[in-house]
Amino acid sequence: xxxxxxxxxxxxxxxxxxxxxxxxxxxxxxxxxxxxxxxxxxxxxxxxxxxxxxxxxxxxxxxxxxxxxxxxxxxxxxxxxxxxxxxxxxxxxxxxxxxxxxxxxxxxxxxxxxxxxxxxxxxxxxxxxxxxxxxxxxxxxxxxxxxxxxxxxxxxxxxxxxxxxxxxxxxxxxxxxxxxxxxxxxxxxxxxxxxxxxxxxxxxxxxxxxxxxxxxxxxxxxxxxxxxxxxxxxxxxxxxxxxxxxxxxxxxxxxxxxxxxxxxxxxxxxxxxxxxxxxxxxxxxxxxxxxxxxxxxxxxxxxxxxxxxxxxxxxxxxxxxxxxxxxxxxxxxxxxxxxxxxxxxxxxxxxxxxxxxxxxxxxxxxxxxxxxxxxxxxxxxxxxxxxxxxxxxxxxxxxxxxxxxxxxxxxxxxxxxxxxxxxxx
Amino acid sequence: xxxxxxxxxxxxxxxxxxxxxxxxxxxxxxxxxxxxxxxxxxxxxxxxxxxxxxxxxxxxxxxxxxxxxxxxxxxxxxxxxxxxxxxxxxxxxxxxxxxxxxxxxxxxxxxxxxxxxxxxxxxxxxxxxxxxxxxxxxxxxxxxxxxxxxxxxxxxxxxxxxxxxxxxxxxxxxxxxxxxxxxxxxxxxxxxxxxxxxxxxxxxxxxxxxxxxxxxxxxxxxxxxxxxxxxxxxxxxxxxxxxxxxxxxxxxxxxxxxxxxxxxxxxxxxxxxxxxxxxxxxxxxxxxxxxxxxxxxxxxxxxxxxxxxxxxxxxxxxx
Lengths: 425, 319
Description:
The complex is a heterodimer. In chain A, the strands form four sheets. Chain A has a five-stranded mixed beta sheet with strand order 2-1-3-12-6. A four-stranded mixed beta sheet of chain A has the order 9-10-8-11. In chain A, strands 4-5 form a two-stranded antiparallel ribbon. Chain A has helices at about 1-25, 55-65, 75-90, 105-110, 130-135, 155-160, 170-175, 180-190, 205-210, 230-245, 255-265, 275-285, 315-325, 330-340, 355, 370-375, 390-405, 410-420, and strands spanning about 40-45, 65-75, 95-100, 135, 140, 145, 145-150, 150-155, 200, 265-275, 290-295, 305-310, 345. Chain A contains 18 helices and 13 strands. By secondary structure, chain B is mainly α. The two termini of chain B are about 45 Å apart.
């Protein structure tokens, strides 16, 4: 009897403890603002490779001995995105500085009140205006630009030679100067030479280059979705797919097959934002025939590039702001460029001899500094990307993939794209 | 005899002591208290989220912005009108059938083999559990590489045999088969071990008697093993059903985007839910899908229960 009474009590306590546990779990203690001289740790959450190596972080520690910077690298941009939104919703757990990809930045801009205003007199005129604009929300500078992705054309000179096309970068640039039709018509010549390789990798990747050349492609400036009705979108969709039927390797970008195809010479050209150089070198380290042509269909285009943001939920927002400011400054952007090839977004960096003289041995000593400065200067249009940009892009890319994999005809696929876009509302 | 009746008579009107009362309460209520931690925990981590999800599904709800206006059944109506929802439901069932059915059949066969007098029993038993230990993410990575459309292992092998490659990432059935194979790889051994445990509990006398009566191995398997295994089978089938309907990891990692395929070829309900919640940040609609999935599982659970009851009564008759 005694025993069972004790167990009764235990059971009751266990039950109560379960509740207590949850109750305490919910209450969060407020922490006092950090003393600037106390040793603190700042977490810098990035993804892929931002070029922030240990040396750079150690340098900051030298400048500010009380601050240790720890970098959390997510494997992919998607993983970083999921992490950001989950923890933003939870209200805790984010790094002191969070890196955000330019393509999902519009989605983040909606929650400007969750981020610190980073504008200061120091970083006021650092960037090209369109890069600054991408980080502004509700009149606040919530994002400081890191790199940008000016686009050139990367090509395999061995496959070009096989098809009887010129192989030197200057000659190729001359050959491809023009609009997308020029690009496709050279592709037609290439395809007719029957080298066994395709002209470009996928309709999806090519479409991405095209989409970034319109001011209001999917949405109006007020955020109204026009993707389903904009004749430009439909025309681009159809023209890319028309070319793709004979000129594409039909390998969906970023798939395992796309990577394998790159190494196996399945396609001869690729749209090549500055950060793509690292991807190509990483996936085909044994090839020696990659070259870069200083040209892009229809002038210039920008694909990608990121921002650094400071979430208000962090404990050391002032210190984080100072770090974000320092690490995005021209000198540091050039250091990051040297490490990972991420192209600086700072105008001041474009006159720096380290950048103007930069060469890349993997790409047959291409003068990547000069080439990408030219490509960056050729970017004239700033696409408007609103909150639904990512979802619309997914719908359209799925549509392109459906046709490339032979699942649907062009018309059926377009009709489904329209349905999918309407379902976003 | 008289004394005893007297005593009993004396005892009845006696006031019950408090300690005795406590004793009675103890017998009456403490079993409930003993199991109460489960129900308390369940109500906090199971029931509350369930009801809260229901609450969310009735509102316009942004993942980060939080609760918006009350919209009633609008989210449900919207979801039910989406073609994608129905495709996802179809795919979920299709993957479920492609995985659970062969999985359980193969698991029974493996268990039966393990139940015989093998050399190195423990080694083989540990062996079948090995795939279960492998991380689901690793399994998905390996398999998605194998099922590459152009440079994948399977299609390369087929090409050597002169068979055209199978479009693993564009044909719905092929993609679902590929995903089901990942599920089967991971779970067959696990189920086999549970079934083996069930088989071990079958009295050996039955087999001896049957052998003396002249029953062959096959006859013994179908007339003794399978009927005796019913309770274990029911457990395995129910857990496989729930797991199968909630499938997420494998289809999500089947391609690099994780959104269920360009034509929703392998879009399952959980992925659809995920896309609505984290892709479009619309938690109201995602919650509505979650509730619909819950209802589907309950429905299947009820069907399972009906079957279970029938088998249970059969069992009573048999023994």
